[in-house]
Amino acid sequence: MTEFLLWCLPALIYVFVQARRPDGSMRAALDRLGVAWGSPRAWLWALGILAVTLGLSWGASLLIPASVWTQPGVTVGVATSAAAVAAVILRAVGEEVFFRGLLGGVLMRRLGVVWGNLAQAAIFLLPHLALLAVDARVWPLLPAQFVTGLLLGWLRHRAESFVPGAAVHAAVNLAAGLLWGGAS
């Protein structure tokens, strides 16, 4: 829950600051953040991206030596309780609020879709570099993280919402925790 709140705090500040501007409103600020359900078409795109990102994560995990998954500090099958499932989902949603909702939205508006999406995907990769502190042999997860960031950023742009991407992110993280121990 703490991570969720920390990821969402900058977005909440953004919304309140934008809503207080003379030409702003709360609804306009939420729209810029991408707080919307998304169209049925966006959810179809999300299903396709879910399949791709699951494949990327699984493929990346196959490149990691089995001995890495059994080391102290590496937890396989972490999402085995209701609290763990809730934590995985909340973290994924919080990351989407921050990286695709706030950061992606701002960067794509200021730099254009291509450069803004590349920038948010690169920034999304930064906290995931901590995986290397566990073991440098988990490096195959990093390109998968970057591509996932690009795909979720593209989906955020197309859907004008981070919500479908948050569902994809949560599903991939749950699958990683339940099935093969990698994290996304």
UniProtKB/TrEMBL annotation:
UniProt keyword terms in alphabetical order: Hydrolase, Membrane, Metalloprotease, Protease, Transmembrane, Transmembrane helix
Segments passing through the bilayer: 43-66, 73-93, 113-131, 138-155, 161-181
InterPro entries linked: Rce1/LyrA-like_dom
Highest taxon of the lineage: Bacteria
Gene Ontology molecular function, alphabetical: endopeptidase activity; metallopeptidase activity
GO BP terms in the entry: CAAX-box protein maturation; proteolysis
Pfam families: Rce1-like
Domain CAAX prenyl protease 2/Lysostaphin resistance protein A-like: 82-174
Protein name: CPBP family intramembrane metalloprotease
